[in-house]
Amino acid sequence: MSASREIIRLENLEKTYFKKSLAVPVLKGINLSIYEGEFNGIMGTSGSGKTTMLNILGLLDVPTGGKYYLDGDEVEHFSDDHLAGLRNRKIGYIFQSFNLSPNLTIGQNIEVPMIYGEIPKRDRVKRAKELAESVGLGHRLNHRPTELSGGECQRTAIARALANKPAYLLADEPTGNLDEKTGEEIMRLFHDLHEQQKVTIVMVTHNPELETQFNRVIRLRDGRVVSGND
Amino acid sequence: MLLRDLYTLSMHNLFLHKIRSFLTSLGIIFGVGSVISMLAISGGAKKEALAQIDAMGIDKIIVYSKAKEQSNTSSSSSTSVLDYGLNYSDQNNILKMENIKRVTTARRLRTPITKGLETLDIELFWVSLHFQEDVNCDVIKGRWLTPSDFENSSTVCVIGRNVKRKIFGLGEKEIVGKTITVGKSNLKVVGVIENKADTKLEGINNLNDSIFIPSTTGVSIFTEYEMIGSISSATIHHVENDLFIVKVDDLEVIDHTAKRISAFMGRAHKTKDWGISVPLNLLRKKEATQNIFTIVMGSIAGISLIVGGIGIMNIMLANVYERRKEIGTRRAIGARKRDILYQFLIETVFLTILGGLLGIGLGIGIAAAITHFSGMPSEVSVISIVGSMAISGIVGIVFGTYPAWKAANENPIKALKAE
Q1: Of the candidates B83, B161, B273, B327, which lies 20 to 30 Å from B393 by C-alpha distance?
Q2: How many CB pairs under 8 A join A and B?
């Protein structure tokens, strides 16, 4: 495993929130490496620091201490625009409630990250079509999200996350809004992506049933990694 | 990022909420509508004024006769003589003043011109040599009166464009060379003139409905004493001249010259049987009134544009609040702050420009309706349309920037949690 490229390295990462003068430490020194081709689950109960961890990994929040290396770059000192660029190119965000634009078609939804990535229109359309086909939605390109089932919406969201060939997918409770059967289908899609396309996946969940699905489980408790750190 | 891409990202939203978008831009629609119609009406009025002045030229002072009011106390049965108006001595005295280039005169025949028993809607003037030039008429057939016509008191005439039809009907083709009979005199037509602007001169109804003869001929074949009215109670009018068109050398001091003429006339005439007007001043007055009108209407239009803009800002703020999740999502998948800013700004500007377009349509409609129902002329200028589009865009930018800025600066983490 350690022969693979290191995608993420966290060194003594800390995050402390300040409520008035009161300091509330949420992440208390996290050391963690994630390698290319892994399928990781970050698990923990509510209050464990899971959401904060997700926001920091997703570059939506910055740590108050320690270091975060993404694909070899230390990200702490980047400008807002630079971080947006990294989110765009390196991270494929997948949300619990899909977060598709209801007024755009499936094809256009998949195109959105490529628009921000300034990919030419012709290439965007072509890639959106390929991606839609790869998640089994080739026939749905011109439909709108409201015409799709939850599972299909999440497939669209996964296709969108893959649009700019990110370093890893960051999924936040991706099955949380789906029924059991559809949730299983989505998990199967993640496995397919992981096994066939060697996509690196970090999935944040509190759902213990998913535990067996990951090839590594990183367990958070009270702002620290309690297991899964090698 | 290309405009086309921004369109993909944002515009659909506007068409998704058609009614809301329409209501949002209503303020702009009415604002631009009022600007366009106001400018059209004001432009039309200005054009009309300019055409009138243009026909005369601005380097003129008009002095004209005013009929003396008949006193009712005088016995109604007897014949009285009304002696009034501009006379030869006035003309000579004005000519002696400074800054006078020439004085062109016109005298109207008060005896009606008839064709059989029918009184024709035509007037006859005996005029001086430069009349045609000074009232800006074009010779469209034949020629104008020549100096030799004046020297010989020739019984020739030049007629206005409409006279041929009124006397000869539509059938007659060639008019030059024909003879017109007025009273007991036969006048040979030597030319036809046209006044394109339909200028209304003091004392002259319409140049196109008039017959012009040399002043010398007029004096010899007609009389300065004309009997008007029935035989039992007729009034004899004695008028030497009805109109002086005083052309000045230096336009700069035209007001001064007009004042001197006015002062002289006041001294020379015991009663106010004359009037004076300076077209340039009319133009200035009209312009001043126009400017006030434009300022007042402009302010009203401006206020409605501001109100419209605030309405749009309000809706866009609500819109931003409503779409926080979308904003958060977009930020998470790589939109920069400015991408979000542009997206919302473009939406607002698009909305206001669309409103502006509808407003232009509305404004043209209002202007046309006003012209149709009140007869006020209107002219929609290209500048007002282009300007309105620009203003709509600017309103969009001004009132769209704050909501867009707010959207761009939403905290993506909080925005993502929004429902």
Answers
A1: B327
A2: 73
- Per-residue confidence band for B136, with pLDDT thresholds at 50, 70 and 90: confident
User: What's the pLDDT score for residue A144?
Assistant: 92
Q: Distance (Å, rounded) from C-alpha B226 to C-alpha B247?
A: 29
Beta-carbon separation of A115 and B5 below 8 A:
yes
CB contact under 8 A, A115 and B8: yes
The mean per-residue pLDDT over the stretch B256-278 comes to: 90
User: Given a cut of 90, is residue B253 above it in pLDDT?
Assistant: no
Compare all CA atoms of chain A with the CA of B414 and give the residue at the minimum distance: A60
Domains and CATH numbers, chain A: 37-62+79-227 (3.40.50.300)
Is A63 in the B-facing interface, judged by CB distances under 8 Å?
no
Across the interface, whether the CB atoms of A87 and B331 are under 8 A apart is answered yes
Contact list, B326 vs chain A (CB under 8 Å): 99, 101
* A118: nearest CA partner in chain B: B1
CB contact under 8 A, A115 and B413: no
CA torsion sign, B180 to B185 to B191 to B197?
Answer: negative
What is the mean predicted confidence (pLDDT) over B5-30?
79
Highest mean pLDDT among A17-26, A154-163, B199-208: A154-163
**Which whole-number Å values give the CA distances from B41 to A40, B48, B170, B303, B376, in the listed order?**
73, 11, 36, 19, 7
Q: Which residues of B touch A156 (CB under 8 A)?
A: none
CA distance B263 to B249: 19
Mark yes or no for CB contact B326/A101 under 8 Å.
Answer: yes
ipTM score of complex:
0.92
Q: What would the pLDDT profile of B357-368 be if each residue is shown by its tens digit? A: 999 999 999 999
Q: Judging by beta carbons within 10 Å of its beta carbon (0-12, 13-18, 19+), is residue A10 exposed, middle or buried? A: buried
Which residue has tokens 């007869």?
B375
Which of B334, B338, B412 has its CB closest to that of A85? Answer: B334
Q: Which residues of B touch A (CB under 8 A)?
A: 1, 4-5, 8-9, 12-13, 16, 325-326, 328-339, 412-413, 416
Both tokens of A59, joined, read 């570059």
Please, which contacts does A49-52 make with residues 24 or more away whose CB atoms are closer than 8 Å? A49/A15, A49/A220, A49/A222, A49/A223, A49/A224, A50/A204, A50/A206, A50/A220, A51/A204, A52/A15, A52/A26, A52/A27
pLDDT value for B368: 93
Q: How far is it, in rounded angstroms, from Cα A137 to Cα A119?
A: 22
Q: A60 — contact with chain B (CB < 8 Å)?
A: yes
Buried b / exposed e over B249-273, threshold 16 CB at 10 Å, is eeeeebeebbebbbeebeeeeeeeb
DSSP A124-193: HHHHHHHHHHHTT-GGGTTS-GGGS-HHHHHHHHHHHHTTT--SEEEEESTTTTS-HHHHHHHHHHHHHH
